[in-house]
Amino acid sequence: MNSSFAIDVDAQLIEQAARGCTSSCEQLYRLFQRPVYTLAYRFMQCPDDAQEVVQDVFIKALSKLDRYRGDAPFWGWLRQVAVNTALSALRKRGRRKGEMSMSDLLENQLPSHVSQTSHGIDIHQAYSQLPATTRAVIWLHDVEGYTHAEIGKMMNRSTSFSKSQVARGHAAMRSGLEYEAGFDLCPQTS
After folding, report:
1. Are 36 and 54 in contact (CB under 8 A)?
2. Per residue in 102-112, pLDDT tens?
3. Is residue 9 scored above 50 in pLDDT?
């Protein structure tokens, strides 16, 4: 696993944090604050919303440390708490702001003009232009390494939902990048 969450943590540190040791809780926060923030920001695309997710993740995780069984790495357990919390925040924000329905999100495409940096194409800009759900699925699949089945389950959707989100998101980004670059990044073979 090549996740930014893949940080080894001493079992004793987790036990002390579970017993309420403030310095141990602070150590866990310092170890994982950055990967949690990165994941939250990629989902939310807003620093304030991402920071709120970070706060919620650590409140949940530290209050539920007794539920961590130790049969898998701690970072995997915390990553799952972070993903679930970020997805929940994304859904809540969508309801609060009256965002598009899921069918609207599926039809939404990357704008034809994607910014370009002086060093080349800005893939981060292309990614940020994708619909929130598509961004979340792509991040979970391409960066965090979740399978399509796992993503579908997390989002209460099917495996094919995840596959189509990744395929459509990649296609939207690719078409925007091809437009900007003026050439085909993935030529068709005959």
Report:
1. yes
2. 333 333 333 33
3. yes
Rounded Cα–Cα distance for residues 114 and 179 (Å):
8
And the tokens for 57? 């993740």
**CATH number of the domain within which 19 lies:** 1.10.1740.10
* Cβ contact 174:32 at 8 Å: no
The alpha carbon of 164 is separated from its chain's Cα centroid by a whole number of angstroms, namely 17
Residues 148 and 61: beta-carbon distance below 8 Å: no
List C-alpha distances in Å: 147 to 91, 150, 158, 166.
21, 5, 12, 11
Q: Output the domain CATH number for residue 160.
A: 1.10.10.10
Q: Does 22 share its domain with 72?
A: yes
Is residue 104 domain-shared with residue 88, that is, in the same domain?
A: no
